[in-house]
Specification:
- The structure holds two protein chains of two kinds.
- By secondary structure, chain A is α+β, with helices and mostly antiparallel strands.
- In chain A, 34% of the residues lie in helices and 31% in strands.
- In chain B, a hairpin with a 4-residue loop joins β10 and β11.
- Classes of the chains: A alpha+beta, B mainly beta.
- Chains A and B meet through α1, β5, β6 and α4 of A and α1, β1, β4 and β10 of B.
Chain lengths: 197, 344
């Protein structure tokens, strides 16, 4: 009977782990806006900071990420239209599945700012004659419609990558806006005396 | 035991969250393995089977009459680190060997589809050198790159591959220009005499979903071909492609000219239909000319990485070049092909 008790406990632990894993799904960080389009959006209060300061920090962030941001200093808006490569995992290798173009918008006001990742459009890759992966002209799928072209598993895998990317990039943006210095641990070089033995 | 289970749960959860931190995509993609496998069955409706096992319609691949036959296994590796990249792609099987790439004169038998290196000198200018799939034409050797399984006369008679050095300048996502020097002979790993073929490709995208390539390959040894390859994804479901080419043989008259139209429609996310209508004409070499009209109706049925391709084809030559079921000369031939292509 004791054996059965521990089996129950083990089963409970496995279920907990599975639940944690499910909660980890990065696609869940994406939200739907009023037009039923995927967005990753947040308004952040920054008391004591002017719109100009936040705007300049936003520009620094764009530059640090290699993004070409179009800035409108008067309106306090920075907009970039980059793209993100998504991957498909197979048993033996990982290859490009396509790219997602999106719009990253950072808008600043006195005491606060907001950012929005939106306009996600997936452009699937197809292998071309040179063995390179390339987009297929005219084939574009809004992220919300991925499920119409791909299986639930494939859709989830692609959405997870977009969610993870947004989450990571937003964290970097928050860090830049807070101007928290990036701490790098510097490991001391280990030296060994080879002349004494 | 209870404590052990709790510890196990804790470590599993920690490992799960730690793994999630690694999810973000990396800048340099890892080494990629890619390729395909294809197999087919063909039946020429005349029932004619030649001594070599082929049948009436003689365009590249899908050649074996009344036989379940193989195309090729194609295996490729590629990697890009920073600005430098390589692609190495090898094939084994009739489609990738004797039917497309001749063996070397010394009997060597390696079957390269692509073997090149490239370097991005800037965001807009890339230099590539090695043995590459040709830049000319609509269709390619790999069945993954074609909608129809059988191939056109324009493809069969044009270059398959060119070895050379080329530079591509990208003006914008709507225009680019490639210029290169290539070995004198097509479809060979090394030159016959020298590197004297000029190649150029102008790419323009006049509208969203519309691409057009104007190609030129010209040299004393292999002749001159001018080619237009264009495709327009007009709606989500409908795509129209066109290939037109004119080839002048080296050192004298002869060559070919032709045009092929490729309307394709997607009935669903997994099933699509396409027609290839082609007109192809041999130029006069003094003994007259000959021409053919060929119509191929193909369906692509996708099941993940697997594509099933049923296809019906009718070719009609100006002259009696085929044989019918009574082995009498005829102008027309028709065939059915059922192919399966797995891409990875």
């Amino acid at each position: 009977m004791a054996y059965l008790y521990y089996m129950k406990k083990l089963f409970f632990s496995i279920v907990c782990i599975l639940l944690i894993n499910t909660a980890r799904a990065q696609k869940d960080v994406l939200q739907f806006d009023e037009d039923n389009k995927y967005v990753y959006y947040q308004v952040v209060d920054k008391k004591g900071f002017s719109a100009d300061t936040l705007y300049n920090r936003g520009l620094v962030f764009m530059k640090s990420q290699g993004l070409k941001g179009d800035g409108d200093a008067k309106a306090g808006i920075i907009t970039a239209k980059p793209k993100l490569v998504l991957y498909a995992n197979s048993l033996v290798s990982k290859k490009e599945a396509g790219e997602v173009s999106y719009i990253l918008n950072v808008e600043t006001k006195d005491q606060k700012y907001r950012y929005k990742f939106a306009g996600f459009v997936f452009k699937p890759y197809k292998i071309n004659r040179y063995g390179s992966m390339a987009t297929q002209p005219g084939v574009e799928i809004p992220l919300e419609k991925l499920w119409t072209k791909y299986s639930a598993k494939e859709t989830d895998a692609l959405l997870d990558q977009v969610g993870a990317f947004c989450k990571t990039t937003a964290a970097r943006l928050l860090q830049q806006m807070d101007k928290v210095p990036v701490l790098r641990s510097e490991d001391a070089v280990k030296k060994v005396a080879t002349d004494k033995w | 035991m209870k404590k052990k289970l709790l510890l196990l749960s804790f470590f599993a959860a920690a490992a799960t969250f730690t793994a999630s931190a690694q999810d973000a995509p990396k800048a340099d993609p890892p080494l990629v393995i890619f390729g395909s496998v294809d197999t087919y069955y063909k039946n020429d409706f005349s029932g004619f089977k030649s001594q070599t096992g082929s049948s009436n319609i003689g365009t590249s691949f899908a050649s074996d009459q009344n036989s379940i036959s193989i195309g090729m296994i194609d295996l490729g590796l590629k990697k890009k680190v920073g600005k430098a990249a390589f692609v190495g792609e090898m094939s084994f099987g009739p489609r990738g060997q004797a039917q497309s790439i001749p063996n070397g004169s010394s009997g060597d038998s390696y079957h390269i589809q692509n073997l090149y290196v490239s370097y991005d000198l800037s965001d807009k200018f890339t230099v590539t050198g090695g043995y590459m799939a040709t830049f000319v034409g609509y269709e390619v050797i790999s069945p993954v790159g074609n909608f129809n399984y059988s191939t056109s006369y324009l493809f069969t008679n044009g270059p398959f591959q060119n070895a050379g050095l080329k530079g591509t300048y990208t003006f914008s996502d709507k225009a680019s220009l490639m210029v290169g020097v290539f070995n004198d002979g097509w479809n060979a790993y090394s030159s016959t005499k020298d590197v004297s073929t000029l190649g150029a490709q102008l790419f323009v995208s006049p509208a969203k979903g519309w691409t057009a390539y104007i190609n030129l390959v010209s040299g004393k040894f292999s002749g001159t071909e001018i080619d237009l390859t264009t495709a327009y994804q007009i709606t989500d479901a409908f795509k129209l492609g066109l290939n037109a080419a004119d080839f002048n043989a080296p050192n004298g008259p002869g060559g070919f000219t032709g045009v092929a139209l490729y309307p394709q429609i997607a009935a669903s996310s997994t099933v699509s239909f396409g027609l290839r209508g082609e007109y192809f004409k041999w130029k006069d070499t003094g003994a007259g000319t000959s021409s053919v009209k060929a119509f191929t109706l193909t369906s692509n049925i996708k099941a993940g990485p697997l594509t099933i391709i049923p296809e019906v084809r009718l070719d009609s030559w100006k002259d009696e070049v085929f044989v019918d079921s009574n082995m009498l000369p005829t102008k027309k031939a028709s065939q059915f092909v059922l192919a399966a292509v797995y891409s990875f």
